[in-house]
Amino acid sequence: MTNYNTRVSNIPEDVILDILLRLPTKMLTRFKSVCKNWKALIESTYFIKQHFNHKNNEARLLIYHYKSDIQTCVFTLYLNTTFSRYMEPNHLQFRNIVSVIGPINSIFCVIDENLIGEGGGITLWNPSLREFRPIPAANLSFSLNFFTFPNVFGFGQNPLNEDYKVVWIRKFRDPRMIHPRMVTLVSLYSLNDDSWRHFKDTDFGIVIRNLSESKCNTYVNGFYYWLADDVNGNYYILGFDMGNERFVELEVPKCVTSLYVNLCLFHDDVAILSLDVQEVGKSIDLWVRKEEGHWVKQLGVGPFSFWDFSWPFGLWENGSFVMETSFSDLILLNPYTRQVWNLNARSEYGYTRIYSYKESLVSIKRRN
């Protein structure tokens, strides 16, 4: 061991840093036991950020989808740019069907709907480090005894102090009343405080109506976004500022009237992917929100008479569209070349999501 440490110490520090930054997280976890200096380096904030953004740590397409032969949802990770090689890593799988939001720095928020009613069921997860951190139950200091409607979640980070936060929105109606009264409860979890706080939507000066979670990640620059609609069926975007802890409402392009829309991100801008049904076929439009609420039609493709698309899922890193067909198959469409890849994945039960996945050394272990 002495000879080995001597040889390591003779290697210039910048060379050691360059080598370590190219290694996968599993190997780096083992290398922390080589010496104290390596352990301190690999656990440093500087190294973690450099490793996450290193060119060797490429983003890969990750899809959470239904697999009929085992009748459950699985994660499929695609290993090349032609999407012909893929795998279902064991460390990415769950026994139960769950909802998964994120990632933020490759940290996911996992929700088990079967356990939500029991006071738990929400967990933070870093699959690269095989780390789980259950979030404490969101116990209320007051009793509601109301019938609850579907849960809506958001997951993001305060960019000022890197605090991870979970937003949980629930609507309640008291069935005992002749004219049932709707109550919207907003619960906010902070990882730094490891606790929940509870508010009504009116505490923020807004009334939250119908929300839908996107099929892909919609957190960007400190905000998490949902697609929403009002009592007249008009779309708008509801955003939550993770730093200032306030909601914002954004208008959408007035020409977006299709029922088949999904909120997504185009680089660092909020975008809407819209599927429009026409007599000559189906067309796909990508609208991008620029500064000061100005929307731009970034791209329009179609009409297609030979592809029976049923839903737009989102965008991949190279600008390709992830689409669902009427047979629930997921495909990737390059809007410029119109090349299509079958992802050999099926969408069912409303749990299907697409992610841009990179390895991360960010630890979510309980802090002192």
TrEMBL record:
SUPFAM superfamilies associated with the record: F-box domain
A UniProt-annotated Pfam family: FBA_1
Top-level lineage group: Eukaryota
InterPro entries tied to this protein: F-box-assoc_dom_typ1 (IPR006527), F-box-assoc_interact_dom (IPR017451), F-box-like_dom_sf (IPR036047), F-box_dom (IPR001810), SCF_F-box_component (IPR050796)
Transmembrane portions of the chain: none
F-box domain residues: 5-51
Name of the protein: F-box domain-containing protein
